């Protein structure tokens, strides 16, 4: 038969595996008095991956860090993987190349520190958590 690329792996019925992969990350930023002109964003520290082990390995290959959930069976779900790189665009490109599309996203933000909590005099430090849900039919 034809050779398959990693993004064309087959399920038992001879078609591409369908499923969901969720990408998540925590971020923080500081906003001073001049909110728009003075916002300082920190880089993404870690991108987490949630989904079936087989799909995550297919999409991310060697860039998937499995150290927090080693030897997970291929058809089981996990939320303990993360990527070895820190660029969301790279994760999105890999998912797109594997035939996934974004189905939903969600983000939360809270003020973690301000002057009243011992933070910088004029700044407020905000934290956020964002998730992107990708699916392949």
Automatic annotation (TrEMBL):
One of its GO terms (biological process) is regulation of G protein-coupled receptor signaling pathway. It comes from the Eukaryota. It is found in: Cell membrane; Cell projection, Neuron projection. Keywords: Cell membrane, Cell projection, Membrane, Phosphoprotein. InterPro entries: H1_KCTD8_12_16. GO terms for cellular component: neuron projection; postsynaptic membrane; presynaptic membrane; receptor complex. Residues 19-136 form the KCTD8/12/16 H1 domain. Its main location: membrane. Pfam families: H1_KCTD8_12_16. This is KCD12 protein. It comes from Leptocoma aspasia. The lineage of its organism: Eukaryota, Metazoa, Chordata, Craniata, Vertebrata. The gene is Kctd12_1.
């Amino acid at each position: 038969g034809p050779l398959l690329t990693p993004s064309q792996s087959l399920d038992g019925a001879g078609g591409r595996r369908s499923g969901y992969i969720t990408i998540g990350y925590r971020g923080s930023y500081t906003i001073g008095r001049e909110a728009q002109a003075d916002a300082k964003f920190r880089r993404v520290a870690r991108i987490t991956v949630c989904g079936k082990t087989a799909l995550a390995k297919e999409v991310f290959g060697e860039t998937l860090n499995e150290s927090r959930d080693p030897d997970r069976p291929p058809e089981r779900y996990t939320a303990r993987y993360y990527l070895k790189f820190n660029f969301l665009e790279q994760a999105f490109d890999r998912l797109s190349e594997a035939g996934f599309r974004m189905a939903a996203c969600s983000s939360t933000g809270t003020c973690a520190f301000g002057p009243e909590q011992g933070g910088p005099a004029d700044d407020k430090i905000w934290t956020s958590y964002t998730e992107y849900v990708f699916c392949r039919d």
